[in-house]
Design brief:
The complex is a heterodimer of chains A (110) and B (143). With 110 residues, chain A is mostly helical. Chain A is built from 4 helices and no strands. In chain A, helix 2 runs antiparallel to helix 3. The chains are: A mainly alpha (110), B alpha/beta (143). Chain A: It is found in: Cytoplasm, Cytosol; Nucleus. Chain A: InterPro entries: AHP1-5/YPD1 (IPR045871), HPT_dom_sf (IPR036641).
């Protein structure tokens, strides 16, 4: 799969003499906005360490304006988000079955 | 001159048609600076005069002072005031209710679409909005 699709081509089609740098301006806005959004997600993370790592990776890629890195870490982030959701759903299901006294095992070193 | 990414962008329509007054003035509302820049560029390429703002609140402020808005195109999901809430306020106002409103959303949710159309929206466009979507809707509504 490539890194850019038809939507990017449509953005480029909007570039004209009045806005000769339109595409680059939109891309800069994207990196600025997505970095901020990723930071918001990172701040909302509830101890999800793998997601946190991917957010950091995504943020770094945005800062470097590294589109390839952004796409890769974003795909990883989405995957980790899905995996985390499944695992936490299973976890809470088990908790409900086990009763109120059970909590997660604290990671070593904490 | 457009200022891409600025909170408010006023863009004159390209091309000469004899005067700004003859060119439909579209108010675009979107909290995303990226989407705001894109919709403004699409509207400009379709020869509309565009003012792009970042919130429903700002849109209502502008509608209170700018008498010649021909159409409103607004994002659905915005903080503080959604596009739906903006639509309702426009349609509840005796001064504004005749202005056609188009809703945009990145989510294709049928109940949301129905609710907006029932409230008086002219159309509901799923993002990413294309120039062909704008052309289709606007030529119908502004005919």
């Amino acid at each position: 799969m490539g890194y850019l699709d038809e939507q990017f081509c449509q953005i480029e089609d909007l570039q004209d003499e009045a806005s000769p740098n339109f595409t680059e301006e939109v891309v800069s806005l994207f990196f600025k906005n997505s970095t901020r959004l990723m930071t918001n997600i990172e701040q909302a993370i509830i101890g999800a360490s793998r997601m946190k790592n991917e957010c950091t990776s995504f943020r770094n890629s945005c800062g470097d304006e590294n589109a390839e890195g952004c796409m890769r870490s974003f795909q990883n982030l989405k995957r980790e988000h899905g995996v985390l959701r499944q695992k936490l759903e299973s976890y809470f299901q088990l908790l409900r079955q086990a009763g109120p006294a059970v909590t997660a095992t604290r990671p070593r070193g904490m | 001159m457009a200022s891409v990414g600025g909170a408010t962008v006023a863009v004159a329509a390209a091309g000469g048609d004899g005067g700004v007054g003859a060119t439909p003035h579209v108010l675009a509302v979107d909290d995303s600076s990226v989407d705001r820049a894109i919709i403004a560029a699409i509207l400009r390429s379709s020869r509309f005069r565009v003012t792009a703002v970042e919130s429903g609140k700002r849109a209502l402020e502008l509608l209170g002072t700018e008498p010649n808005v021909s159409m409103i195109i607004t994002d659905y999901w915005m903080p503080e005031m959604t596009g739906y809430e903006l639509l309702k306020k426009v349609k509840e106002s005796s001064e504004l209710k005749q202005i056609p409103v188009v809703i945009m959303s990145s989510e294709n949710v049928s109940t949301r679409i129905s609710r907006c159309l029932e409230e008086g929206a002219e159309d509901f466009l799923v993002k990413p909005v294309r120039a062909s979507d704008v052309s289709r809707v606007f030529s119908r509504v502004l005919r």
